[in-house]
Design brief:
The complex is a heterodimer. Chain A is mainly alpha-helical. The N and C termini of chain A lie far apart (141 Å). Chain B contains eleven helices and three strands, in the order βααααααααβααβα. Chain B is globular. Chain B is mainly alpha-helical. Classes of the chains: A mainly alpha, B mainly alpha. Chains A and B meet through helix 19 and helix 22 of A and helix 1, helix 2, helix 4, helix 6 and helix 7 of B.
């Protein structure tokens, strides 16, 4: 027997004696120590009568952020319970220590759902664990950046839970996984990449329809801007950003062009082609006239070696043509053309990349030239269509065989 | 059976070069014009992508421009070196003349069984139309195409909005040319019931005396009168030339009709 075991034996005996004294109506018994609790609970097979496990891995708890604390610090009502303690006792109140976090959680969509009786919604332990909670800087922590998508994904990537909880956006983990943020986080291991919590917050996750939400439309640029500060500055200086600041809800925010969970690299062909349609959701006319030009025809076929919207207009800091700082203003347009067309001069820039052959006011020469070509084509095909059809029927329907005498006299007559 | 020479080697080679480059230009250009149609991207990808298609389009254009230049040079030579003014006026000239109008009216009358078949000479009015259509097309499509190829250069001469017109015209005129050749010219020259499936004269250069006499009685009688017919008598075309001509002609007609069907499909599904 080692000294340590000896000590444990003595203490154990003392505790038993003490509790016996307490049972006999003496002074209040001291609270059980962690070892007391673990003596029973550090058993992976320990279950309640109804089969729910009540085991606590002693090692995991000792390694957790709460390791130095006593079991009864959280399970407070057990400090004075009689042993063997009853099955039911008060739930652990994290707010006793983590008041701010729990208060913030109280405003979240998760808390709302729970209040409405939907107990599937996440509470503290769903994200942080129970006895094995570690600080988020710990690689083993459920809230460590690299583990976070998996933690949220336990519900938001589980088709069963998504269906049961009626989560409208569906499986978000797969989408995130394939996005540039997901790849940077999961493949490149960059902790600074955007994870769920960077955009949605952690405890105070609100619906995107909630004006206080970090992902509420008008708040999106600010949220993305916490990392993409340089882009936020550009966006704020452009027409879309300034209109948003002025309260126009129709202007695009980051996620309109880049999406929320499927953000890709902007140098990929797919993205370059997809974003055209995105601009075209508002700028319908401009997309239509663009499609009539060589640039638009080429991109329509899935090739990208030509100008698309952002090549001329810029991306985040788009300004209207009337603004002299705009890349498509009269003063700067030739310079913009020269990005691709070496030697483009002011005359070159008089080309209209959104010409409308049906618009007599905007493009009169083009309008009339188109009219001329339509007449030419119409004239040629009407005339020769008729000519060919008549010729065809004449050759197809053979002359009726005529009696030789009559044929001869006819020939004479000719 | 005696055969009469109608086209010399120059004519036949020029027709072949026009055929090849025209089909090539159509195949490499139409995907852009009909980018909305489902087949457009498929063809563009079959050609190796639009970059390759663009390079091929320009190569075919160079070939066609060279053939056109050679033709103009030949005309100038005939005019100023050989003093052959027959190309300017008369029965063997391509220049439209009053008789063309008369023959056209008479042809329509014949269509309606209101008169005899006109007695055509060396070139008919629809052949002259085809010829001048190519001339016009060369300037219109060729000119606009060069502008679009070298916009920075042409911008020093014309204002930029001309490129808007150039692009529109390039497409519309291309549509006119392609649809015309693949329907009207094919019918007039090859597919009509009395020629079906094709007239091989443009490949072999000659046709039988019988056919010549029937098709162009004015030309035949004139040649007999002038005592020139015997100079034009040649032997029957070698079998391999005839076979090769038929093969090339068949492929070209099928390709042309195929391209025309795609255009028709695109126009119909768009409307």
């Amino acid at each position: 027997m080692t000294n340590r075991h000896l000590l444990a034996g003595i203490l154990g005996t003392a505790a038993l004696v003490a509790s016996a004294v307490h049972a006999a109506g003496g002074a209040p018994a001291p609270a059980p120590t962690n070892d007391d609790c673990l003596a029973c609970h550090d058993d992976a097979t320990l279950k309640r009568e109804d089969g729910r496990p009540v085991s606590v891995a002693g090692k995991a708890f000792a390694d957790s952020v709460h390791g130095p604390m006593a079991c009864v610090d959280c399970h407070a009502d057990l400090a004075h319970a009689e042993f063997p303690h009853p099955e039911k006792f008060a739930p652990v109140d994290c707010a006793a220590c983590h008041g701010d976090a729990v208060a913030a959680y109280g405003k979240s969509v998760h808390a709302d759902a729970r209040k409405a009786g939907k107990l599937l919604a996440a509470t503290c332990t769903d994200c942080h664990g129970v006895h094995d909670i570690r600080p988020s800087s710990d690689h083993e922590s459920k809230t460590y950046p690299l583990n976070l998508p998996g933690t949220c994904g336990r519900c938001h990537g589980d088709p069963k839970i998504i269906k049961e909880a009626d989560i409208k956006i569906g499986d978000i983990v797969t989408k995130y996984h394939d996005s540039i943020h997901g790849k940077v986080l999961e493949k490149s291991g960059l902790l600074v990449s955007a994870k769920c919590t960077n955009c949605h917050g952690n405890h105070e996750i609100r619906r995107k329809t909630d004006p206080l939400s970090r992902v509420f439309r008008a708040n999106v640029p600010g949220t993305c801007g916490t990392c993409h500060g340089g882009i936020l500055t550009l966006y704020a200086s452009g027409i879309h950003g300034s209109r948003l600041a002025a309260g126009d809800p129709k202007v695009p925010v980051c996620s309109d062009c880049h999406t929320a969970h499927e953000i890709t690299r902007t140098d990929l062909d797919r993205w370059k082609l997809d974003v055209l349609a995105e601009c075209g959701t508002c700028h319908v006319q401009s997309l239509r006239t663009y499609r009539d030009t060589f640039h638009g025809q080429v991109t329509s076929l899935g090739f990208t070696r030509v100008a698309s919207c952002s090549d001329c207009h810029g991306a985040h800091d788009i300004l209207p043509k009337a603004d002299p700082r705009s890349t498509v203003s009269d003063g700067r347009r030739a310079e913009t053309c020269r990005k691709c067309h070496a030697g483009a001069n002011a005359s070159f820039a008089k080309y209209d990349p959104h010409a409308d052959k049906r618009d007599r006011v905007r493009n009169p020469p083009l309008f009339w030239a188109t009219r001329f070509m339509q007449l030419l084509l119409g004239g040629v095909f009407v005339f020769f269509g008729l000519h060919t059809s008549l010729w065809f029927q004449r050759l197809l329907v053979k002359d009726k065989p005529q009696p030789p005498a009559k044929a001869a006299s006819k020939k004479e007559a000719e | 059976m005696r055969h009469i020479q109608r086209f010399d080697a120059y004519h036949r080679v020029t027709h072949l070069v026009l055929m090849g480059s025209f089909l090539g230009l159509a195949a490499t250009g139409l995907p852009l014009l009909f980018h909305d149609a489902g087949w457009a991207a498929t063809i563009a990808n079959l050609l190796g992508g639009l970059r390759v298609a663009g390079i091929l389009h320009r190569l075919f254009a160079i070939v066609l421009i060279l053939a056109f230049g050679a033709h103009v040079a030949r005309l100038l030579r005939r005019l100023f070196v050989e003093n052959d003014y027959g190309i300017l006026w008369g029965p063997e000239s391509m220049v439209p003349q009053p008789r063309d109008l008369k023959e056209m009216v008479a042809h329509f009358a014949w269509f309606f069984r209101r008169g005899p078949q006109p007695r055509f000479d060396h070139f008919t009015y629809w052949e002259k139309f085809d010829y001048w259509a190519v001339f016009w097309g060369m300037f219109i499509i060729g000119g606009s195409g060069l502008m679009l190829w070298f916009p920075a250069f042409f911008a020093r001469i014309v204002p930029g909005w001309v490129f808007n017109i150039a692009l529109m015209i390039h497409g519309e005129e291309a549509l006119l040319a392609v649809a015309f050749i693949f329907t009207i010219h094919f019918f007039n020259g090859h597919l009509r019931p009395d020629k079906f499936p094709m007239d091989t004269v443009v490949f072999t250069g000659s046709l039988t005396e019988e056919e010549f006499k029937h098709e162009r009685p004015e030309a035949y009688e004139r040649l007999v009168r002038e005592g020139r017919l015997d100079d034009l008598v040649v032997g029957p075309p070698p079998q391999r030339v005839l076979r090769a001509g038929r093969a090339v002609g068949t492929v070209a007609i099928l390709l042309g009709l195929g391209i025309f069907s795609l255009i028709l499909y695109a126009v119909m599904s768009h409307a």
